[in-house]
Every structure is written in C-alpha cells, then in structure tokens.
C-alpha cells in the first residue's frame, strides 16, 4: 500500500542520511542544490506538475498515457496523484541529475523488483 511504501521510503532516507558524510548533507533550511524549496514555494504548482507529466511521458514513452490511466483507475485516486507529485516535484527536477541520469536511476531501481 501507499502508506507502507511511504514509510519504507522515509526510513530508507533516514538510513541514507546516517551513512552520508556530514560534508555532503544539506543544512536544515539552508541552501539546497536541488532548488526544491523554490519549486514548492515560488513556482506555480501547475508548472511543476506539467514538468513532471512531460518527464513521465519521456520515461514511459508510447505507453505513458496507458500507465497513468491504469494508476488513475487503480481503485484509488491516490496512486495517480502520488505519481504526479513524485514526477513533478522530485524526478523531473534536473538541478542535480540530468533527465537521462534520473531515468537510468528509475530503471535501475526497478530491476531488483523484477518490474516490467
């Protein structure tokens, strides 16, 4: 479920933080090389979500509309909304990784799960 997955993601980020050298950690409420705070507070939400949808379309190619439609009709609207938020606010942000690098990370993350 979404709750289980989000809990795992949060715990994984805390584990990553504990294994990251302090010199590589961002200061709380300090400068962020990702500019995510700017996306959250300064950029119109519609622009961020449009950027995310464009990135999703590039990653999934000709099946992107079908995949998003399946998520929207999965029995809860939360799956489609969560995907739109993740792709808009996280994956489509190219301030640290390029779009190509991010798509490689996404594919690499799916390989151990045997997701098609």
From TrEMBL:
By its UniProt entry, which SUPFAM superfamilies does this protein fall under?
Answer: AhpD-like
The cross-references to Gene3D superfamilies, in alphabetical order and at most eight, read:
AhpD-like (1.20.1290.10)
Query: What protein name applies here?
Result: Uncharacterized protein
């Amino acid at each position: 479920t979404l709750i289980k997955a989000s809990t795992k993601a949060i715990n994984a980020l805390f584990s990553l933080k504990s294994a990251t050298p302090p010199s590589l950690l961002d200061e709380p409420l300090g400068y962020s090389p990702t500019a995510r705070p700017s996306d959250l507070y300064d950029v119109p939400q519609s622009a961020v979500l449009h950027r995310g949808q464009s990135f999703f379309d590039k990653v999934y190619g000709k099946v992107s509309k079908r995949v998003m439609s399946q998520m929207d009709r999965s029995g809860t609207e939360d799956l489609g909304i969560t995907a739109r938020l993740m792709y808009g606010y996280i994956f489509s942000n190219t301030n640290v990784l390029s779009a190509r690098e991010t798509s490689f990370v996404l594919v690499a993350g799916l390989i151990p799960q045997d997701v098609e």
